[in-house]
Amino acid sequence: MASGVHENGFVLFSTEELSEMSGVKFGGDFVEVTCGCTSHRYGDSVGRLRIFVNGELEITCECTPGCREDKLTPAAFEKHSGRETARKWKNNVWVIVDGDKIPLYKTVLLKYYNQALKSSNGSSRSQSGRVCHRDEFVRCSNCNKERRFRLRTKEECRIHHDALADSDWTCADLPYDRITCDTDEERASRRVYRGCSRSPTCKGCTSCVCFGCDICRFSDCSCQTCIDFTRNAKLD
């Protein structure tokens, strides 16, 4: 892929739109740029923002060499950076254009996010920039520890979906995060953070709980929940 052209042939962004932006890279279905968020107390936190054609926005934080925060929503990255006036990620998260820090809302990078938001009338997306799925936990049948599942993509939702259905699921079945039964369980104080853009310690609300969508339901799954969703979707 070159000049922001997806492998299937459509253009994500023109060469002119990206020409002055720093850190531009192209992937199979996304464009990646350098981004950041500034805290008056902690300074700049730098990251890598991926813009997907389906409207998804995803940030990998590079605030320190050892930071392991990735697949963050812009809202979560804003909070992680220590920004004092959080909940305004479109204004506070910036990219570098011709050497200057430019807020996201002043760039073309929110084009697909805004289109997706309009097409869904806001019903299935939160203000964090992605479909609403908070983190969930599954208990290992071997060590009895709860393990976190991030549900940001269809692949991640399927991994959690299958793990939840498997009564013999163990830590060794996790395809990512090098976790074994010997790894410490997340502290209770950490587990309350589930990825809700409205409130960090939310216990479940309309901004982070999804009751079924194309990302977390699967036409090739034989469970009753997926069968019912697929049947109803065809009727619609």
Averaging pLDDT over every residue, what do you get? 82
Gross morphology is globular
Query: How would you sum up the major sheet?
Result: 6 strands, antiparallel
Order of helices and strands: HEEEEHHEEHEEHHH
Low-confidence stretches: 1-10, 120-130
The percentage of residues in β strands lies in 15-25%
Measure the end-to-end span.
36 Å
Radius of gyration: 19 Å
Write up what this structure looks like.
With 236 residues, the protein is α+β, with helices and mostly antiparallel strands. The chain contains 7 helices and 8 strands. Strands 1, 2, 3, 4, 5 and 6 form a 6-stranded antiparallel β-sheet that branches. Strand 5 and strand 6 (100-103) form a beta hairpin. The longest helix is centred in the C-terminal third of the chain and has 12 residues, at 154-165. The model is unreliable at 1-10 and 120-130 (pLDDT under 50).
